[in-house]
Hydroxyproline O-arabinosyltransferase 3-like (Spinacia oleracea), 368 residues
Amino acid sequence: MIERKNMGRASPLLLILLVLGFFFATYNLITLVIHNRRLNLWVRNDGGIEMLTDPIIEIPEHLKRLKGGREPFHVALTATDAPYSKWQCRIMYYWYKKQKELPGSDFGGFTRILHSGRSDDLMEEIPTFVVDPLPAGIDRGYIVLNRPWAFVQWLVKAPIKEDYILMAEPDHIFLRPLPNLALGGLPAAFPFFYIKPADHENIVRKFYPEDRGPVTNVDPIGNSPVIIKKEILAKIAPTWMNVSLKMKEDPETDKTFGWVLEMYAYAIASALHGVKHILQKDFMLQPPWDLTTKDKYILHYTYGCDYNKKGELTYGKIGEWRFDKRSHLRGPPPKNLTMPPPGVPESVVTLVSMVNEATANIPNWDKK
C-alpha cells in the first residue's frame, strides 16, 4: 500500500518544473498576441486562413511557407514610338524571352503599351497594345504623365489572362528568372532611396490628408518595378492618373518632385486605397551606384556610367569610357560596345555584356 501511494504522488521538483513550463508558454503566447495586434493588418491566404503580419519590411517566413504553386504575372511597360524608347524595348523584350523559359520564372505574357495613339514598326516583333496619349498640352512636356493614363486604358480594354501584373520600364534588363514576389493582396515593390514622403510631408498632405492616416502609410516607391494583382491595380490606376495631373498643376509640387513626380503620385494613390507594398530590395539594382548584380532580378540602367581608364567613377563628368542611354536618343547604340576598363564594378560590366548579347541576336538591330 505504501509503495502504491508513493508511485501516484508527483515529486515537488516535477511540480515546480511543470508550473514554470506552463508560465513561460502562457507568457510567450500572450506576448505574441499583443505583438500581432499592434501590427493590425490581416492577410488572407488562398486557403482562407487569416494571419497577422507586417508586410512593410519583408515577407515573414510563415507566409513564405504558405505560398505555393506558380502564379504567373503579365509584364507590361509603357512606351513611345521614339527611337530612344524603341531600342530599349527591344533589348528588354529579348531578355524577357530568354529568362521566361528558365526554371523559377513566373513570367506570363508581355505587352508594350504604346501611348502614341498609332502603331509602329515594332508591332510584329513585340506584343503591343496601342492606347491614346493625353490630350495635347496636358503633360506640359513631362511625357511620363502618359504612363498612368496608358495603364487605365489598357486595363479597361485589353484581355489580360494573368491575375498579376509586373509594371516595368524599357530600360529594365531581366538578370535571371523572376518569381512572383507579391503575396495575395500585398504587391511587391522596389524601395527607392530618393522617394521620401516623410521628408516632404507638407506637400504629400496636399494629396493625402491627415484624416487618411500617418504619412508613413505612403510607401517609398514608384510604380515600377511593382508586381500587383490586376484587380488592385485597376482600382489604383485612375487615382494614380488624377493625382499625377493635380501634382503637375501645383507649382510647388512640380518644382519639388520634378522628374519623380509621377512616382510619388503612384505611392500616394496606393495609400489612398489602403494598399501597402512588400519592399523588396533585391528586386532591382541601379548601376553605377549598385556594384554587383548578385541576387538581383532587374538591372535598371537609368544613370550614366562614366569611368576613367583606371576604372574610377567620374560621375558628373564625361569619362574616358562611358555608357549612357541618353547618348543614343536618335537611334540604337551600335553592336559590340567597348567593354569597360579593368576595375569597373561587375554591375556595369554585366550591363554592357547583356546589351551586347541582345544587339548581336536581335534581327535588323541597326534598321529600326
About this structure: The chain is about 35% helix and 15% strand. Residues 1-10, 13-20, 22-58, 61-66 have pLDDT under 50 and may be disordered.
